[in-house]
Amino acid sequence: MSYLFHNLNHPNPRLQRKKFLLLDGVFQYEIKDDNKIYENLNKNIVVPNSIEEELLPSKYLHLKRTFKLDEDFFSEEEITLHLLKIDQIAKVYLNHTLVMETSLPFLEVEANVKKYLNVGENEIYFIIQDDNLTSIYSKGKQNYDGLKKNIPSLSGILDSLYLEAHPSIHLKDYALDYDYLQRRLKVSITPVGLSENKVIEIYDNNNLKIVQEFKKDETIIDVSSLEEYSYKHPKIYDIIIKIKDDEVRSYFGLKKLEINYDEENNPLLLENGKIIYLRGFIDFGYFNKSSIVYRDLDEFYRCYKILQENDFHLIYFEDVLPSYKILSILDKLGIYYILPIISGGNERKLWVKFSEFFYDETYLVDRPLRLGRNKKESYTQLRLEMINNIETHLNFTGLLAYVLFNEGTGQIYSKKITKFIKDTYPHLLIISSFHRYDLGVGDIEAKAPRKSLNKIHNDKLRLLFLSLHKMKLSSKLMKKVNKLIKNEKLSILLYSYLWTFKKNEGVFLNFGEENNLIEEIKQFDQMWEWEDLNSCKIS
């Protein structure tokens, strides 16, 4: 039995230490015209949460709460403050001292803050700005064209924050690379400080320990006695990594995703060397059911379980990064996910509008984007945000691929950046852009049944990636999609949006008791002759 949620209160099931203090709870808050620290704030909000009012770029959101630390927590050499998701630009104070500034939207940041804390009562104070990418009327990342009337405000502390006590020599993170041919697992760790005393403990099928001691930051472990992870059989194992006196509990699954081609050069998705075909949904992650600010983890589990039981094993999180707990639920259920790179651009007050499409370098957008003073600055900022984004989520078991640019937003030097990411993370599958204007420079090429796609021609067909924004298609489009499935070996099929307001019939899905569209989707799905794909062979 896996201890995937070893401690239900810990906000990061993949990296858990015993000594942590969750700082979620009731905060005082107010929106102010200035960024000075106030003694009293007159409203209350339960964090993580979004304020239910607009936060304009000229305003400041102030939040504060007090908490207590005992002497045992101070017995460790370091105390790290983890902030998982803030929307979006924040200054963080502990006991009226500035300890951190954030400028990476929705991405985890951390800092060693022990010297700013006291045994006994402490105060944490946030001053947050929301400098929106697409509108002067700030609504976080959720001011999406065509849906503005239905989208609530979303700004503030959107995920957990916590303190973790640990030695100065400790584990920063670790990475796994599974060789399914040799049944070997390469474990690479990132330690902070120096130590030759490293131990990995893996709990096998009978909860017996496989212990591996090593001195370098990389080791190879024989895992032939363990079961492989598959979306049909999501086997999870526990792992404990010790570096000197530091101990971190985590989990993993033995899986390797890659692209291969059949004898006709059609792209296929392989899981541990076997062809798989995935169906799934696009999840915007906000609105009334949010994978960012979730109200009820059990409800999410129930809804995802419905998907899994009806053969939906993929979710694309468009524009948003879900909570670590949500990702861990998907890992446990065998639902793969595609994550976006969340980019905030660079200079807040400088805007650039691209109006032309250049195939080799720069991609157009038809709305203003905050990019920076010039392409070089934007490129540097995008690289910074991409590395943070990838390394924060890289080693979750169910990660299928990253989308570097959502519909081209911020797509500067796309070929150069894609190559940089692939050189840095060679085992990671990359989609260069989702939907429109995919240049085909990643491992997976995204396509959708839109007229604009006909303007883009790629010499080399990659993994075909189709998104349907409505459940019912015209007969002409239906024939076109059927041809794609039969002739181009469609490996991934995404249906319309999940967890969103049902603005138009059949566009948004909501798995409530009175409106369960799974049966409708299954009937619709039979028209696609999906089973034809199962007869595909690779050379």
List keywords for this structure.
539 residues, alpha/beta, nine-stranded parallel beta sheet, six-stranded antiparallel beta sheet, 6 helices, 31 strands, 14% helix, globular
Concise account of the structure shown:
The protein is α/β, with parallel strands linked by helices. It has helices at 297-309, 324-333, 375-393, 414-424, 475-488, 518-526; strands spanning 20-22, 25-32, 43-47, 60-69, 78-83, 86-87, 89-94, 97-102, 109-112, 120-129, 156-157, 161-166, 170-179, 184-192, 198-203, 209-214, 218-222, 237-243, 246-252, 257-261, 267-271, 274-276, 278-283, 314-317, 336-340, 399-406, 430-434, 444-447, 463-467, 492-498, 508-509.
Low-confidence segments, given as residue ranges, are 133-150, 345-373, 451-462, 500-508
Rg: 23 Å
What is the residue-mean pLDDT, rounded to a whole number?
Answer: 77
The tally of beta strands, per DSSP, is 31
Helix segment count? Answer: 6
- End-to-end Cα distance, whole Å, is 38 Å
- The portion of residues assigned to helices is 10-25%
- Based on secondary structure, the structural category is alpha/beta
Strand content: 25-35%
Most strands sheet: 9 strands, parallel
Shape: globular
Descriptive notes:
The chain is of the alpha/beta class. Helices cover 14% and strands 33% of the residues. The chain is built from six helices and 31 strands. It has helices at 297-309, 324-333, 375-393, 414-424, 475-488, 518-526; strands spanning 20-22, 25-32, 43-47, 60-69, 78-83, 86-87, 89-94, 97-102, 109-112, 120-129, 156-157, 161-166, 170-179, 184-192, 198-203, 209-214, 218-222, 237-243, 246-252, 257-261, 267-271, 274-276, 278-283, 314-317, 336-340, 399-406, 430-434, 444-447, 463-467, 492-498, 508-509. Strands 23, 24, 25, 26, 27, 28, 29, 30 and 31 form a nine-stranded parallel sheet that branches. Helix 1 (297-309) runs parallel beside helix 2 (324-333). The longest helix has 19 residues, at 375-393. It is globular and about 65 Å long. The two termini are 38 Å apart. Mean pLDDT is 77; it is low at 133-150, 345-373, 451-462 and 500-508.
